[in-house]
Specification:
The protein is 39% helix and 14% strand. By secondary structure, the chain is α/β, with parallel strands linked by helices. α3 packs parallel to α5 and α3 crosses α12. The longest helix has 17 residues.
Length: 292
C-alpha cells in the first residue's frame, strides 16, 4: 500500500458537522460487503472475489453520493480476502475521500505502545481515514496514539455501548460506585476528549453508542455532551428514529446514525438496476432521520 501525504486540515468534528449540514442528514452508510449477498450481476461476472467486492463498493459510493455524508468501512469484510482485499480497502477509502465522504475506518483497534502507533499510521497515513473506531478497554493508552499532534485533525470513536446483545454482560455490569461499566468508559472518553474541542463544540474523541440501547441513551449523553456519537444498530438491527432521539443534543446535533444492510442490501435478487435500488434505500434512510 502506498502511504498518503496528508496536510493539516480542519478539525475532525467540524468537518463532520459541515458534511452533515451539507447533506441534510446525520447519516452514515456502512460498507460491509459479503460476497454471497452481492447483486447477481456482480457475483456472476468472471472476476475474482476481490474484484467483485471492489466493483460493488465503488458502485455503492456512486449510488449514495449527494445523499449520505459519511461511510464506514468494515475492515474485516476486506481482510478476509487477504492481500487483494487490503488493496481493495485502500482503493475504496481513497475513492470515498476523493468524492468528499467522511471516511470512518471500522477496525476497533485496541492495543498500546508501538502496536497502537502502527495501527494509527495504517488508519491515517495509508488509508487516509478521517476517523477510526477503537476499543478503550485497555485504558487511555490504547487511544492516545491516535490523538497525537500529528493527527490533530483526525478522530476516534471509542466503544462505549455497543449493539450486540452479549454486550450487556459487561457493559451493564454495576460497579461499586453505582456506575455501569459503560458509564465508566463514557466518563473516561469525555475526559480524554477535553484536550481537543473544535469550533463546533465537539471533541475529536467520539463514542460508539448503539441505537438498540435506548434505556442508556439519556445518561450517556449527559456524561458525554461534547462527544459525537457514532450510532450502529439502526434499520436491520431494530433501531429507529425514536430509539436514537435521546442520543442527540438538544440542538439536534451530535450523532451520526449508521446503517449497513438496510441500504447496501436494498435490492431484490436479480435486480438489474441494483444501484438505483441502493440509492432509493439510502434516500429512505436519510429521510427517516428527518423525524428526529
Amino acid at each position: 500500500m502506498q502511504a498518503l501525504t496528508i496536510g493539516a486540515r480542519e478539525h475532525f468534528a467540524d468537518r463532520l458537522c459541515s458534511a452533515i449540514e451539507s447533506a441534510g442528514a446525520p447519516a452514515c452508510v456502512g460498507l460491509d460487503p459479503v460476497l454471497e449477498k452481492l447483486p447477481r450481476a456482480v457475483r456472476d461476472a468472471p472476476t475474482t472475489d476481490a474484484d467483485a467486492i471492489e466493483h460493488f463498493c465503488m458502485g455503492v459510493l456512486e449510488a449514495i453520493d449527494g445523499v449520505i455524508p459519511a461511510v464506514k468501512l468494515q475492515s474485516a469484510c476486506f481482510e478476509r480476502l487477504g492481500a487483494p482485499g487490503f488493496a481493495v480497502l485502500e482503493r475504496v477509502a481513497n475513492k470515498a475521500k476523493t468524492m468528499g465522504f467522511i471516511v470512518i475506518y471500522d477496525a476497533k483497534r485496541g492495543d498500546i505502545g508501538v502496536t497502537a502507533a502502527h495501527y494509527t499510521r495504517a488508519a491515517f497515513n495509508v488509508l487516509g481515514a478521517d476517523a477510526v473506531t477503537v476499543n478503550p478497554y485497555m485504558g487511555p493508552d490504547a487511544i492516545e496514539p491516535f490523538l497525537s499532534s500529528e493527527y490533530a485533525d483526525r478522530g476516534v470513536f471509542a466503544l462505549v455501548r455497543t449493539s450486540n446483545p452479549g454486550s450487556d454482560a459487561v457493559q451493564s455490569h454495576k460497579l461499586e460506585d453505582g456506575r455501569t461499566v459503560a458509564q465508566m468508559i463514557a466518563d473516561h472518553t469525555a475526559t480524554l476528549g477535553e484536550a481537543n474541542i473544535g469550533k463546533s463544540g465537539y471533541s475529536n474523541v467520539g463514542a460508539v453508542v448503539a441505537a438498540t440501547k435506548p434505556e442508556d441513551a439519556t445518561a450517556l449523553r449527559k456524561r458525554m455532551p461534547r462527544q459525537f456519537f457514532l450510532v450502529p444498530g439502526f434499520g436491520a438491527q431494530g433501531g429507529t428514529a425514536e430509539t436514537v432521539r435521546a442520543l442527540f443534543n438538544t440542538n439536534g446535533q451530535g450523532a451520526l446514525i449508521t446503517a449497513s444492510r438496510s441500504v447496501i442490501d436494498g435490492f431484490e435478487e436479480g435486480d438489474a438496476d441494483w444501484l438505483g435500488a441502493v440509492r432509493k434505500a439510502a434516500e429512505g434512510f436519510a429521510k427517516s432521520l428527518e423525524k428526529i
